[in-house]
C-alpha cells in the first residue's frame, strides 16, 4: 500500500505541476506582482495532494518570528518538500538556486519571470559576485531570500555541511537571517521514491539580527538550525506510527567513524 500511495503521489506531483504551468502560462504576459499569486496556489495544491494522497500533514511553529520586509530565510535541506511547501509563508520570496534549473523547459521560464537568483557553481568567484548583486537588489525591494545553506539535500540526522557563503550574504546584506528547522526528511527522504505518512513539523526560529562577526554568525546559525532540527527528529519518535526513516537515522549514528568523535 505504501509503495502504491507513493507512486500515485509522485506521478500526480509532477503531473499537477506540469498542468498548472501550462494553464497559468498566460501570466508570462503580466507584470510579476500580478501573476505571483499562482505560485503560492501551486504550492498549496501540492500540499493538499501530499495530505490526501501521501498522508503528510504539516505543523508550522513560530510564524511570529518572520520579520516584515526583506530578510534571508536559511532553511534546513533534507527533502524536496521544503522547496515547495514553505513558499506561502513569504510575501515575495526569491530562491537562490542552481543555474541549470533555468534550462528546464517551462519551469525555467517561471524562475526567470519571478526573478529567482541563479548561481553558477562552476565559476565560484564570479557566481558569488553575481549572486550578491542580485541579493542586494532583492533586499532593497523588501523581498525574502530563500537559501539552503548546505547547498544540497542531506539525510535527516546526518552530519551538517553548511557552506560559508551564507556568512558572506549576512555580512554584506546587513539584514536579519531567519533560521528554519524541520524534519521533512523523515517523510519524504532525499533520493527516495517512497513517501511516508506523518506530520512534518517546521520551526521558524527567532531571527539573527545583523551586526555579528561572520564567524560568530555562522556558528550560531549552524548550532541553532541543527539543534532545533534534531529536536524535531526526536519529537517525531513520539508519533503513533513513527517514520521508518528513523531506523536509518539511528543506524547512521552507530556507524559514524571513530575519528569523528571527540
Automatic annotation (TrEMBL):
Broad EC category: transferase
Record-annotated membrane-spanning stretches: 12-30
Keywords: Acyltransferase, Membrane, Transferase, Transmembrane, Transmembrane helix
Listed SUPFAM superfamilies: Glycerol-3-phosphate (1)-acyltransferase
Keyword Phosphoprotein attributed: no
Region (Disordered) residue spans: 243-262
InterPro entries in UniProt: Plipid/glycerol_acylTrfase (IPR002123)
Domain called Phospholipid/glycerol acyltransferase: residue spans: 71-185
GO molecular function list: 1-acylglycerol-3-phosphate O-acyltransferase activity
GO BP terms: phosphatidic acid biosynthetic process
UniProt keyword annotation of Transmembrane helix present: yes
UniProt pathway: Lipid metabolism
Source taxon at top rank: Bacteria
E.C. no: 2.3.1.51
PANTHER family: 1-ACYL-SN-GLYCEROL-3-PHOSPHATE ACYLTRANSFERASE
Protein name (Swiss-Prot/TrEMBL): 1-acyl-sn-glycerol-3-phosphate acyltransferase
The organism of origin for this protein: Roseibium album
Source organism phylogeny: Bacteria, Pseudomonadati, Pseudomonadota, Alphaproteobacteria, Hyphomicrobiales
Amino acid at each position: 500500500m505504501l509503495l502504491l500511495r507513493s507512486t500515485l503521489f509522485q506521478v500526480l506531483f509532477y503531473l499537477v505541476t506540469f498542468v498548472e504551468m501550462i494553464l497559468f502560462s498566460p501570466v508570462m504576459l503580466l507584470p510579476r506582482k500580478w501573476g505571483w499569486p499562482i505560485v503560492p496556489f501551486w504550492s498549496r495544491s501540492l500540499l493538499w495532494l501530499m495530505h490526501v494522497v501521501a498522508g503528510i500533514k504539516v505543523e508550522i511553529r513560530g510564524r511570529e518570528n518572520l520579520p516584515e520586509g526583506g530578510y534571508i530565510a536559511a532553511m534546513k535541506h533534507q527533502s524536496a518538500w521544503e522547496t515547495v511547501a514553505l513558499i506561502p509563508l513569504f510575501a515575495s520570496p526569491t530562491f537562490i538556486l542552481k543555474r541549470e534549473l533555468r534550462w528546464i523547459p517551462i519551469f525555467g521560464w517561471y524562475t526567470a519571470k519571478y526573478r529567482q537568483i541563479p548561481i553558477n557553481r562552476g565559476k565560484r568567484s564570479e557566481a558569488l559576485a553575481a549572486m550578491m548583486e542580485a541579493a542586494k537588489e532583492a533586499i532593497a525591494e523588501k523581498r525574502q531570500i530563500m537559501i539552503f545553506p548546505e547547498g544540497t539535500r542531506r539525510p535527516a540526522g546526518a552530519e551538517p555541511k553548511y557552506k560559508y557563503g551564507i556568512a558572506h550574504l549576512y555580512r554584506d546584506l546587513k539584514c536579519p537571517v531567519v533560521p528554519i528547522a524541520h524534519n521533512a526528511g523523515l517523510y519524504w527522504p532525499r533520493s527516495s521514491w517512497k513517501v511516508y505518512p506523518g506530520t512534518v513539523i517546521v520551526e521558524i526560529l527567532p531571527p539573527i539580527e545583523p551586526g555579528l562577526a561572520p564567524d560568530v554568525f555562522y556558528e550560531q546559525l549552524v548550532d541553532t538550525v541543527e539543534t532545533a532540527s534534531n529536536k524535531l527528529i526526536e519529537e517525531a519518535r513520539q508519533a503513533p506510527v513513527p517514520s521508518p526513516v528513523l531506523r536509518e537515522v539511528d543506524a547512521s549514528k552507530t556507524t559514524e567513524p571513530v575519528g569523528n568523535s571527540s
